Hints:
By secondary structure, the protein is of the alpha/beta class. Helices cover about 40% and strands about 20% of the residues. The chain has one domain: Rossmann fold. Helix 1 (about 1-25) packs parallel to helix 4.
Amino acid sequence: MKVKVVSKILEANDRIADENRKRFKDAGVYVMNLMGAPGAGKTTLLERTIQALKPHLKIGVIEGDIVGTDDAERIGALNVPVVQINTGGACHLDANMISEVLSELPIRELDMLIIENVGNLVCPAEFKVGEDIKMMVLSVAEGHDKPLKYPLMFQESSALVLNKIDLLPYMNTDINKVRRDSLALNPKLQIFEISCTTGTGIDQWAQWLSALRS
Ligand code: MG
Ligand code: ZN
């Protein structure tokens, strides 16, 4: 019974996600769903990405957090349109939450909309929001066991950012194991090694992102 209830919730979500996808397509905006655990560095990556892409692309952001507006304030400081969703306890964004805030963003003026999901390696991977692609951030401080423990996230993502790569010398993380296990789950996964602190890998990442639109 429980399984049935969950699948019905996901079916209803998928219908709304399809409606969102139509709205995005009509508006000509490319949409990315950025996922990862709390502390992986999603918002910092977003700041660096916006700084790299802003001269070429009009970017908007939806921030998802359980409570608070800190992340939206950080993004707003870069002078891009941003909306904060507070889920009030829910540990992921769903299609309906996105649908409800779309009127607050000038989506027809945007080239790219980036949705930062709630920090969580589990259910954000299950709930479509109408995005063109999902991508995930994993910091090297999280260890090398995550692909095998949270496989769906790695399977659903088109890109994996291995973040905080500058910390690797201080960690016992086997990054080759992360690569191996991630690619075994998802052979098409694009993997980027990035440090938002030193700037390593940001240009390559930004180029890959901007090429997705064309
Ligand atoms: Mg954040
Ligand atoms: Zn959840």
